[in-house]
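Thread amino acids onto this structure.
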């Protein structure tokens, strides 16, 4: 899942279906089924799909928006995914970003401003994550636990905690952007 409860609580005012570009049409079918059963939920539902900063990913988004009927398009939220932290300026000036902004205006979906940053800590195979279980556990590591670690591990633990806290804050910004 792109955004998980380990990052933050999801906004109470929205429900989120997290899918890749290839599965958005199925999510739209689910949205239409839900709207027939409960219009109040359907009005708050957001379909979130990740977008990589490359031409192929943006072409997939263009195809997808061409397939969607106009009514559910505003429920779609697109998030730049796996962008290196600090590379937002380079992303904004890139060709894929310009094309995606044009698609956003043309098709009336929402391209979320904050990017989901790339982090090795988000890899479940990373030893710190597998040992502690969640990103939140790494971000909440107390100073006492870091000071009690072997001296050689202290810098890595400090860096991991800082990176996890930054990733947590990033996830919280994205959840707010999805709900807007």
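Threaded sequence (180 positions):
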């Amino acid at each position: 899942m792109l955004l998980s409860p380990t990052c933050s609580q999801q906004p109470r005012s929205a429900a989120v279906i997290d899918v890749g570009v290839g599965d958005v049409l199925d999510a739209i079918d689910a949205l239409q089924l839900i709207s027939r059963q409960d219009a109040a939920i359907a009005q708050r539902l957001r379909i979130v799909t990740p977008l990589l900063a490359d031409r192929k990913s943006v072409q997939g988004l263009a195809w997808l928006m061409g397939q969607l009927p106009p009514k559910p398009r505003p429920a779609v939220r697109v998030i730049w995914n796996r962008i290196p932290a600090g590379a937002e300026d380079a992303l904004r000036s890139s060709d894929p970003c310009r094309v995606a902004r044009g698609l956003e205006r043309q098709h009336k979906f929402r391209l979320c401003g904050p990017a989901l940053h790339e982090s090795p800590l988000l890899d479940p195979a990373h030893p710190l994550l597998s040992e502690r279980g969640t990103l939140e556990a790494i971000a909440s590591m107390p100073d006492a636990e870091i000071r009690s670690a072997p001296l050689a591990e202290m810098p890595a633990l400090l860096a991991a905690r800082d990176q996890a806290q930054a990733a947590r804050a990033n996830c919280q910004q994205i959840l707010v952007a999805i709900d807007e």
